[in-house]
Amino acid sequence: MPPTLASVVRTSALHLTVLAGADHLERPVRWVHTSELDDPTPFLEGGELLLTTGIKLGKAAAKLQAYVHRLADAGVVGLGLGVGLSHSEVPQALVEAAAQRGLPLLRVPEATPFIAISKTVSAALAAEQYEAVTTSFEAQEELTRAALGKDGTTAIVRRLAARLGGWAALYDGSGALSAVAPDWAARRAGRLAAEVDRLRRRPAPSSAALQGRAGTIDTADEDYVVVQSLGADRRPRGFLAVGTEDRITPTERYVLNAAVALLTLTLERSRELRQAEEKMGAALLRMVLAGEVGTARQVAAGLFGGLPEGTVRVLVAAAGPGPEAAEALGELADRAENAGGKVGEKLLVSREDGAHGPRLTVLALDNGSVHRACLGAVEEHEGLALGVSAPAALEEAGTAQAQAERALAVAQRGGRRTVDHEEVGAGSLLPLLGEEAVTAFAEGLLRPLRDHDRTARGDLVASLRAWLSRHGQWDAAAADLGVHRHTLRYRMRRVEELLGRSLDDTDVRMELWLALRSGEE
Predict the structure, then answer these.
(1) What is the pLDDT of residue 355?
(2) What percent of the chain has pLDDT over 70?
(3) Confidence band for 1, pLDDT divided at 50, 70 and 90
(4) How many distinct helices (H) and strands (E) make up the chain?
(5) Which parts of 231-306 are beta strand (E)?
(6) Contact between 144 and 136 (Cβ < 8 Å)
(7) Residue range 147-167: average pLDDT?
(8) Is 56 in the same domain as 112?
(9) Is 451 within the bounds of a domain?
(10) What is the pLDDT of residue 219?
(11) Which of 34, 126, 279, 427 has its CA at 20 to 30 Å from residue 104's CA atom?
């Protein structure tokens, strides 16, 4: 702890007397400054014990009061007036002004040089710094041994909580709680989900500090909490939260920073291992999609812990343009892997940069943790589209991939987040007609009819729509329009003339009907 005014006053060799502000002697002293200026505040930073002989202060009460106000407003923690030179005793007006502002006022006897006070504070500050360095070095050694042990990150969390005299919690890249110490702090750590989620959306490293915030921490607890994201390449790999009764000291900050560095290093090392596993998983996925399931099982049994067994789905995700969308695709992969790791669910993941941008292919159990995690992640991130295959056996993964690709194409064209293959197979072709190329074709095909309707009698577009919807039945179509069938026949001949096409041609009818429906989408 830094020296306080109380510790300075208790130094018997200084013979200091407290004349005002005795209730505020626990303020830490960051430095000692001597000044005879009537306004020394431009040269102060706050936290100083200011020493003066008062040579320019005089004895006017108004001037002394203004002097004290300036010092208190500047954050000075105490004022020492040396007597025997400019003042034989401390002016009563100065004592009263200091008492009014709660500013500790010390009487410095003539026999006590200012340099002695400065040396006392400097020695205490040096001792504090030495203690901080020694403590932080010991903590680093302890945390490093914990990191190299069997429990790894969990051991770091436990040692950190003990060092801070509070609690600590570690979250994975998706924001899920993975370790907490002591055990009773799990409930408090769980209430930080919103804070962790905010940090997930910011580049790492970043941090947030809060105290007793309603909805996040019990106000009765009044914990001082620091949440820190962990990651070396701007992408959070995890999050560390610590809670203490009071604000952490500079020494405790060193300890916290050491833990952050070790956890980041551990997570990055784990990431390298995961990258190697991802490459193996991608190779196994290619084998499965190519129909080489038997060979893939043999390889995976010894090196990968096996393949997903049972009914599976293939999910194909694509990112839109821009770096943020590409990062979201990486977060989707992390979410899938974390979900599988928590419950021991096998999955295969492959990331590729294709001609249409980055793609992510996931093979996972039908309606399993990974499947659900992917659906949730896509809904949270704009710029992602996901196609999901129908349930299939592992041997049918190649077919399932093709289904997922078709579903993804429908999702991208329709501006949707997720499309299942079941929707593609059971749905309608009409939603696909909203694509720009189809719309442009429809507008060009029907333009002669619409130009006619704007300048001449007879609604050719409506007549064509009614005639096609009635499959060329003149009486029924004429009744729908409320005109005579001869009038409708005339209009259809006019349609053929303007388009230069015969309505007896089935392909022409199909194109005209799709063009009309495209305008409705």
Answers:
(1) 59
(2) 88
(3) low
(4) 18, 15
(5) 238-244
(6) no
(7) 83
(8) yes
(9) yes
(10) 37
(11) 126
Give me the residues paired with residue 385 across strands.
318
Which residue has tokens 């905010």? 198
Asked if 340 and 232 sit in the same domain, the reply is no
Residue 472 one-letter amino acid: G
**Mean pLDDT, range 275-293, rounded to an integer:** 83
Task: Mention every residue, 6+ apart, whose C-beta is less than 8 A from residue 372.
Answer: 339
Instruction: List the structure tokens of 314.
Output: 């293939």
When pLDDT is averaged across residues 477-491 and rounded to a whole number, the result is: 91
**Does residue 254 or residue 512 have the better pLDDT?**
512
Same domain, 473 and 374: no
Question: Residue 448 sits in a domain of what CATH number?
Answer: 1.10.10.2840
User: In CATH, what number is assigned to the domain containing residue 95?
Assistant: 3.40.1390.20
At position 387, the amino acid (one-letter code) is: G
Residues near 463 by Cβ (< 8 Å), separated by ≥ 6? 477, 481, 483, 488, 491, 492, 495
- Name the nearest CA neighbour of 315 among 397, 404, 398, 394: 404
How far is 349 from 286, CA to CA, in rounded Å?
10
Cα separation, 278 vs 272, whole angstroms: 10
- Dump pLDDT digits (tens) for 230-243: 877 677 878 999 99
| Other CB atoms within 10 Å distance of the CB of residue 393 | 13
Q: Which ranges constitute the DSSP H helices of 201-249?
A: none
Q: How many residues does the structure list for the chain?
A: 521
Q: What is the DSSP letter of 43?
A: G
What is the number of domains present in the chain? 4
Question: What does the pLDDT look like over 489-501, one tens digit per residue?
Answer: 999 999 999 998 8
Q: Are residues 465 and 416 in the same domain?
A: no
Nearest partner of 483 among 461, 503, 502, 466, judged by Cα? 466
Residue 10, both tokens? 């208790």
Contacts of 195 (CB under 8 A, 6+ apart): 208, 210, 216, 225, 227, 241
Q: Which residue has the tokens 């729509």?
A: 465
List the alpha helices (DSSP H) in 102-148. Answer: 114-148
Boundaries of domain holding 317: 308-431
